[in-house]
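Bug: token stream looks shifted between consecutive jobs. Job 1:
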Amino acid sequence: MRRDIEAEQTDRMADTPTTAPARIADLAAARSEEPDLARNLTAFGLVCIGVGATVGAGIFVLTGTAAAHYAGPGLMLSFVLGGIASGLVGLCYAELAAMMPVAGSSYSYARATFGALPAWIVGWDLVLEFALAAATVAVGWSGYAQSLTADAGLHLPAALAAAPGEGGIVNLPAAGIVLALTALLIAGNRGASRVNAALVALKVAIILAFVGIGAAHLRPELWSPLVPPNEGAFGTFGWSGVFRGAGVVFFAYVGFETIATAAGETRNPQRDAPIGIIGALVVTSLLYIAVAGVLTGLVPYRELAVPDPIAKAIDATGLTGFALAIKVGALLGLTTATLTALYGQARIFYAMARDRMLPDLFARVHPRWRTPWASQGLIGLATALVAALVPIDVLGELVSIGTLLAFMLVCASVLILRRTEPERPRPFRVPGGAIVPVLGMVACLALMASLPGDTWLRLAGWLAVGLAIWFGYGRSRNRNGPDRGIRAGDTQ
């Protein structure tokens, strides 16, 4: 029976160019031929995964940068705008995750909707979302680690403590934590869902403690004016600064996409995936707005351009003992966020290699550890290099614009699949018809437009490199071999 089904699928695929969109039924059939993953995650577990992946450098690091350079106390409004945009996109993710509970997230959605080339672009773009996110979080980890060791009287030489442009030559701690976590991932040391839930609870408890203690020491005069006057250039305070701040801190919402990736390991993905995505977004949005308010109410916003703004805010209260707990908690939170991003990037490259868009090396699984060791190792080395040499503000902007581009395509996928596969069951359907997906695309485009011009140039350069690799290598490889990400039974 299986051979008949496989032959039928093979014949159908032989008549269809591999660059055409993959039917959702083919994706599901390919998934059914692969060894089943453990499907034991619940809606609560997905919320914990989303919050755990999301609460990282965005709240512990980039809040200070965005307040100091762009929005001032208006950072609270920036997080509201970012939360609205994320909510619109999150609803679209919820519909697709419930309809297609497969690995690969937005890469798989693009493969089913647009075809091979757009899927390649999304996969290449996701490097900005996962690998550069890991580098950004690692730089934040370095800032808190150095602040913690400085409390003990230990100081790194300036040349080894920061990237070029930030007063150093190489950020050694940032590179070190990436390499250490990469080694753990290669060895297969992944925490269970309940361990992740415990770490999330710890992070949320520390953030709530910061909000509660900070609220008792607020200086409300620091919030006036809520939106500082524009200083003559777009994005330098004023309302344009609030919008640019929203574009920068949008990085803080990166992570809920991990829930869509985990949908294939959920007991009831049709119900639990939407709950997990929306629940994680609500929790993180409320946390971010509260932290932005307390942060700018404790320290003058121009003094927050530091790698560890929350620690600086606690120092302003005089509660040095609690500052130690905050730094340790931030360090743990940033560690798990870095780990999650590195893990996600390796799985994206693994899926692309399975679709014959990358070399087979990226799809190789270690015979003992059962991890994509080559993919994980190469990603770790490249990410460590970026973390060591690139300033955090540049990294954060690149992650934001890359993620926003991927999110636009997810919203577009909802609209297109409703036309191409209208009979496909949709356990969760985005309310309002086409309004929410269109608003999600507009919101993402508006936030992208608010980012600096050099960020657009870096994105264009990154996509140009990706297209060169596709036309020079990926296109012929995808055409001349079996499309293993879709053809059932041909997995290795």
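Job 2, same session, no restart:
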Amino acid sequence: MDEKEKIGIIGAGPAGIIAAGIAGSRGKDVTLIEKNERIGKKLFITGKGRCNITNNSPIEDFFDNVMKNKNFLYSSFYSFSNIDILDLFHSYGLKTKVERGNRVFPESDKSSDVIKTLQKFLNSNNVNLILNTNITSIYYDDSKFVVIANEDKMVFDKLIIATGGASYPGTGSTGDGYKLSKRLGHNITELKPSLVPIEVNEDWVKDLQGLSLKNVNISAYTKNKPLYNEFGEMVFTHYGISGPIVLSMSNYLHNYTNGKINLQIDLKPALDEKTLDERILRDFQIYNNKYIRNALDDLLPQRLIPIIIFSSDIDPEKTVNQVTKEERIRLLNNIKGLTFTFKSFRPIEEAIITSGGVSTKEINPSTMESKLIEGLYFAGEVIDVDALTGGYNLQIAYSTGYLAGMNV
């Protein structure tokens, strides 16, 4: 063996970068291989281009936001926590801020500043970075890992697979790691889109495309069984709904898609029915002689008004003073519970992350080393773990990357 162990890391996303820098800091001869022309390509678009670095909640709260195999992450989270990653970023000069929901962002609101900081981290730890290099095959031979890339052959003593998932393929996350891991004998659990927009059956959503709603409550239920309930922000699309509370909801619906799922939006969650009725009556007094379609502007976004009136089975040409009590109650019920039905998830390519991956049963949770092949490690989204929005998935990447880098 050479004086320094040769460590190969496939994938220069957050997991691979942290693994590479940490391994480099331990004096290892580290080569980080990336198929794109730059590091952190998916990181660049996270948080709408602002990069939600992590979450500032106590680390024990992170487990409540992990949807799959949370116990597997115990060593990872406590070995390298949200405080640790922020200390690392701060030590390289990145300034951060905490926003709603304890989400942490760079002070500049630029994900590019996060990536520049990670590049400094790699440089300071003497990581050999190889870009524009697509791995086509890996095999394990005589206790060495032979990596075939662009018809070139590289040989490593140890190998970390940190290739990400199968979502946002334009960023390089095309599921390569699953294929490579499978060839090395690992089981890949079923891949599903996670944190993904939702398609609905109702055609009228097309008329609302681009309409963003803040401070609403969305709920999902099947056969009167509640599945999900959350307050926050969402947006209508040409096919259905998206936005933070919808993306989180998608994680809760995976196991129920065989039955009919009803979705409901409370447009005025701060008002109970009695208070809302009083508010509607006040508006009706003000706009007593107007058509009902012109009398709800103070209460609802303009584009929603025709939908609410239609759903309430009220003639839009009726004047307010002609609206019956029964019609007013139907109007109130639709404002408190605009209902539509789940059709499907959008494709995995549009998901923020991939649910599923290399089975956690085949990885040592304390080291991220394969239980099947000595010297093979995994980090990040390629593993069968995923979490809700809010910086938790990136923290999984850093924490598992750290363990792999420390133990490789």
